[in-house]
Amino acid sequence: MPVSAPAASGNASAGVPDEDEPIGAVRPAKPVARRPVVRPLAADETPDGPPCPACGTPNLPGRQFCRRCAAPLRTREQPAALPWWRTVWPFRRRVRGGSGRALRRTLLVLAVAGLLVAGFLFFPLGRYVYEDVRDKLGGTAEISPTGVTASAAAAGHPAGAAVDGLTNEYWGAPALGASLTCSFGTPFRLVGVVVHTGVSKEPREFRRGARPVRADLRVTTKDGKVHEKAVTFNDKPGKQTVRTGISDVVSVELVLRQAVGQGEGRPIAVGEVEFFRRT
Hints:
The chain is α+β, with helices and mostly antiparallel strands. Helices cover 18% and strands 29% of the residues. It contains 4 helices and 8 strands; from the N terminus they run αααββββαββββ. The protein has helices spanning 4-13, 101-122, 124-137, 203-207; strands at residues 140-143, 147-150, 171-173, 179-197, 211-221, 226-232, 239-260, 268-278. Strands 1, 2, 3, 4, 5, 6, 7 and 8 form an 8-stranded antiparallel β-sheet that branches. Helix 2 (101-122) crosses helix 3. The N and C termini lie far apart (146 Å).
């Protein structure tokens, strides 16, 4: 066995590490940067497109941005100039898209509504419709005249008996054509007139006296204009309503044109006349 000993000593002297010996840290190598490679410009890449609007450098036709300053090569078209009325508040365009559109629409609707209201107020037909709607929707109240006169009256049946609030007393007109005039101190909107014909509201008593069946209603306004309306009464007791709808009324005249039950000593009876205004 003396031969194996020299072989082991020979491997150690040669510097061969043993398999059980640990490996130490290795120092990394120093990195080396690559040199830039200059690529020659090909003949087909020569810019022949329009120049940049910012720096004037020519670019290829398909480019979107300048190869030198990166400015956009395709400029947007400028919007058309606004009409003068769009530059005035509140119709002018705002910075934010759609801003103010609702306000403009609202103002346009209000303007149209204002024109319609003005048409109703200043044109006769429109004003009539407007006032008629107010008459139907509003309330009414009775108004008493400040004065009452008659062109003629039978004895014991004066003009005042037609506005005293009692239907068993009446104004007696001696003949057709006689008139009853009621005046008012303050102009008002006359909505309607209620007339009670005959000597009484009792059916038997009603037939014993003369009573009107047709008359003319003349309404005078504060500007002196006279509105005439033919009225027909039913030959029965009770109130009979006449719609008028006239503004600024200062007097109302009732002229008798036709009657039934006339005879000697039987004047044409108008038991009560009531006037109603709009509240």
